[in-house]
Amino acid sequence: QVQLVASGGGLVQPGGSLRLSCAASGHTLGTYGIGWFRQAPGQGHKFVAAIMQSGGSTSYADSVKGRFTISRDNAENTVYLHMNSLKTEDTAVYYCAAGPSYYSGSTAAGYEYWGQGTQVTVSS
Questions:
Q1: CA-to-CA separations, 60 to 1, 11, 14, 42, 108, in angstroms, rounded
Q2: For 104-118, what is each residue's pLDDT tens digit?
Q3: Counting CB atoms within 10 angstroms of each CB, which of 75, 102, 117, 120 has the fewest?
């Protein structure tokens, strides 16, 4: 199985930017489609963005379209989430998850493997 490690979270002011990374070990990340989800305190996992194995197809939640960009570097075995124009509503623990190579859906149950998550706090 693949192991995922999410990193890059931190404290940022509204309007700022962060880049999250999802690094894989065990299997090559190029085998999988990758999704990003986030969880605020007391809430369930919400879809953020996803990218298929090829990198040619991406999807985003309406709340982050135009602000977040998902990309992958299969040679580095890493998927990135570039977050711009951050809002306080973006505060959450962010998780990356791996699913079938063809998958880039918004349903958490479609992803088999999950990383530990990284905290993003947007506050002034």
A1: 26, 23, 20, 23, 14
A2: 789 999 999 999 999
A3: 75
22 strand-pairing partners: 6, 79
Q: Residue 17, by phi and psi: left (phi above 0), alpha (psi -120 to 50) or beta?
A: beta
CA distance 108 to 111: 6
Residue linked to tokens 């493997």:
113
Pairing of strands 11-12, 118-122: parallel
Average pLDDT over the chain, rounded to whole? 92
**Which DSSP string corresponds to 18-82?**
EEEEEEEESS-GGGSEEEEEEE-TT---EEEEEE-TTSS-EEE-TTTTTTEEEEEEGGGTEEEEE
Q: Each residue of 63-100: pLDDT tens digit?
A: 999 999 999 887 888 999 999 999 999 999 999 999 88
| CA separation for the pair 50, 60 (Å, rounded) | 7
